Each structure stands twice: as C-alpha cells, then as structure tokens.
Amino acid sequence: MVLGALQKEVLARTSSSVAEENSEVRVDGFRSARFGMTEKGVLKSTFKDFKIPKSKIQRRVHPTEKTLSFNFQVNNLLRDSGKASLFYVFGFSSNDLLRSMYCRAEPQRKNLILKEWLIQPISHAPIS
Asked: 119 lies in which domain range?
C-alpha cells in the first residue's frame, strides 16, 4: 500500500510485523511499466503484462492539465476482483510515465457510473 510521497522518492511501508514497521520499499512502477518510461515503452509493457493491444487502449488528454493518459480494462487484476480499469498518466512537458491507478467496480452492482467506482492509486512517480 502506498502511504505517501517524499520529494525525492515514493515509498511504500509494509506492516506485516512489528520488526518490519520501520522498513520501507521503493516503488518504481507497476508490473513491468516503470516511471520515466515513454508512451512506446508503456504500450510494450502493457502488452507484455496484460496482452492488451494498442487498439484496445484509450488515449486521452486532460483538458486542464494537458497530461496524457492511457486507459484500458482488465479482468481479475487481483484474484476474483472482476473488471478493473487501469490508467497510466504521462507528464505534460516530460511525456514520461508519472502515475498509475486503477478503478474497480463493486462486484454486486451492474451499470455503475464513474463516480460510483472505487479509485485507488497504485503508485506515483518521484516529485522533482
């Protein structure tokens, strides 16, 4: 679980035991997509990880921030979790991968609208 972002790096804290309470793990991406990758690199890693072709990935530009995002759906991102939408967000000026997120619908509900989805950040790139 990602708990916070420092100015130089993103850290995830594990809480499996008292001894590990102070241990930290560096988060540098999601699956084979790494922060700092270009669009082309993220498309390749998306196909490698999920077998999603470029034609199935929605490409959108945020109207205010002007950041680019990739959006695609996968089944059972986590075991027995149903459909989820994954998002990869690229920086406006850098054009490099900055953030990855997923949205998961509640399994018992059908035809949900976006505001009813659970939005959970997976990871975020270092702030420079």
From this structure: 29-124
Residue 9 lies in a domain: no
| Per-position pLDDT tens, the chain of length 128 | 333 333 333 444 444 444 456 678 888 889 999 999 999 999 999 999 999 999 999 999 999 999 999 999 998 887 777 888 999 999 999 999 999 988 876 555 555 444 434 444 555 555 54
Please give the model's pTM, rounded to 2 decimal places: 0.66
Three-state SS string across the chain, please? Answer: CEEEECCCCEEEECCCCCCCCCCEEECCEECCEECCCCHHHHHHHHHHHHCCCHHHCEEEECCCCCCEEEEEEEECCCCCCCEEEEEEEECCCCCCEEEEEEEECCCCCCCCCHHHCEEEEEEECCCC
How many domains would you assign to the chain? 1
Is residue 40 included in any domain, yes or no?
A: yes
Residues in the chain: 128
Do the domain assignments include residue 16?
A: no
